[in-house]
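ok new one. same drill as before - structure tokens go in, u give me an amino acid for every spot. 137 of them this time. try not to just spam alanines like last time pls lmao
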């Protein structure tokens, strides 16, 4: 029974729940980005390149494989996936960059300790004498 209790404590920790929410939102965001690339970005690029549909681009290696279907390398779909990845990576980069910028704007807390110039022991910041060597600070 102890293992079930331990698993319940693990599963209900805040960071596990946060991770689960992040994965769910990430999956939805991935679908949005895929739709953006396939339905918004690639059609104009294909039009500029002479009405090319990237999802149809493929190299046929054999007209019939062991299962009776043609053997093809679908490099157009690969290009779409690479664009998906680049967009997601760029958005995550910008998000982390903004989070780091906001984090660095927090003022550093006032010091609570300082070192004695004579014995180099740490003493409270407001002390006027060192508690170790009794010299004036």
């Amino acid at each position: 029974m102890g293992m079930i209790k331990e698993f319940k404590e693990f599963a209900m920790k805040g960071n596990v729940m946060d991770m689960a929410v992040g994965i769910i939102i990430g999956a939805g965001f991935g679908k949005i980005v895929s739709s953006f690339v396939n339905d918004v970005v690639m059609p104009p690029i294909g039009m500029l390149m002479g009405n090319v549909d990237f999802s149809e681009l493929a190299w046929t290696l054999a007209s019939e494989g062991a299962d009776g279907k043609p053997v093809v390398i679908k490099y157009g779909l690969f290009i779409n996936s690479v664009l998906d990845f680049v967009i997601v990576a760029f958005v995550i980069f910008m998000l982390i960059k903004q989070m780091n910028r906001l984090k660095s704007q927090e003022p550093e807390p006032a010091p609570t300790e300082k070192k004695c110039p004579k014995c180099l022991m740490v003493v409270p910041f407001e002390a006027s004498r060192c508690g170790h060597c009794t010299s004036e600070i």
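The beta strands are 59-62, 71-73, 113-115, 122-124. and btw The chain is about 55% helix and 10% strand.
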